[in-house]
Amino acid sequence: MIWIIFRLLAPGKKRPNAPVFGHRSLFEPDILLKSRFILGARDLIHGAYKKMNNQPFVLRRYDVDFLILPMKYLEEIRLISPDKLSSKGAQTGNLAPHYTSMQFLFHSNLHLDVLKKKLTPELYKYVDKARRELAFGWKKDLPQADDWTEVPIEHHLRTLVARMTAKVFMGSPTCRDPEWLKISVDFSVDLFTTAFTIKMFPPWMYGLVARVIPARYRTFRQLKAGRKIVGELTQQHNLVKERKQRGEKVEEEDTLLHWMLDHGTPSEVEVHEMGARQCVLTLASIHTTASNVSNMLYDLCAHPEWFEVLREEAREIARELGPPCQNMGVSAKEWCTRLDKLDSFFVESQRHNPVLLLNPQRLAYQDIKLKDGTVVPAGSRLAFANYEHSMDPDVYPNPLDFDPMRSYRKRMSDIDQRDLHKAGMTHPNNLAFGYGNQACAGRQFAVAEIKLIMARLLCEYEFKFPEGKVRPKTQHINENCFTDQSMNLMMKRL
């Protein structure tokens, strides 16, 4: 009854002019369809992709309508400016920003600018910084097991990645500060938990639900602690700038935080916002990187014949350059650009285990009319069924097979294809990192981190599933994909 009254009183909103998919009958209310999207998004997307015959369709989530477009629209969407169709807006909207203190992300691009204008142009300078921290944290963060030992591998990887990321963003000694490392790891988990829990309910319940989510209050405590650390670093940087203005010669570590402090607006560099921004930057840089490495290890354990193939590639490079993290006189670029088979393995692992079932996504800031008349109303979400596309036999032959050398064969068969099928490169048939100018801005750094970690793991460890265990299934909430956090692996030193 309450729901009926609410629906009668709620103001109407524009909907995309495409059919809604998923109703079990003409009489099924929208609220049931939306509730099934929470845990059944994969089945709904799969069914729609098969039945809608390459036509636009709508999937309904509690908080938003998704207009799912066929791939023939991809280039047209790529050319629409971010002030009309925004990837950042879609990503921020998924974080329940009004209940997680993330609203500032809607009006600021600084966290994207630093990746596009500073990190990517000087990529391997920063990858080398991360590699040195990888060497420092290796024995601290990974079990040095001489016999088979069962470990929660993703937990260890998160801490290792947190060190590497903090070295680049925050510098020393923060990258070795146990408090910041804990914030980096816990903030991602707690913010995701908060946002996804809220999104499992209708929007009119958000305020009530938010009050009883323990992870939300942990997130606020982490933001407070993170702001304190960033505030101290900001003060130190401002003192250095003052001394330089007086003509003093002062050395200061080159970090992405310093670049942001020097290039942000007054509101962006204010400690309250900058501290939250540094916490937010850990979301993609730590959680997804650790998940990608974990998925690669799970895939290797499920297909152990590839261990020796990838291990020999790493060893061959090591014979020339030295071990992955020991000869710092050799740039990480030499390693990352030569791991062709590992690169291909990652692309295939990511194809089977994406972060999102719907990607790229765009939030419409205004009504958009596409060339064929399809309307994207303001406030709705536009997306592509990237996972279903990657599992389409017309796109990938034998798509259900795990074929780690798909990309390698394409790259080796034609010199013009060498750069089209690499990890981190956006392509209409590889949308794991998005597409076009709004693709993931930090993807090249993430790929480099993953390659360095995997190369060293392969050179130094063996892995297998615990007795009686098999590859864990990917878990889903709405269109989001997660590794099984209860999964352990057996590992020992070679």
TrEMBL record:
Protein name stated in the entry: Cytochrome P450
UniProt keyword terms in alphabetical order: Heme, Iron, Metal-binding, Oxidoreductase
Residues holding heme: C440
Family: Belongs to the cytochrome P450 family.
Cofactor(s) needed by this chain: heme
Any one biological process term the GO annotation gives: mycotoxin biosynthetic process
InterPro entries: Cyt_P450, Cyt_P450_E_grp-IV, Cyt_P450_sf
Transmembrane segments: none
CDD domains assigned: CYP503A1-like
Example of a GO MF term: monooxygenase activity
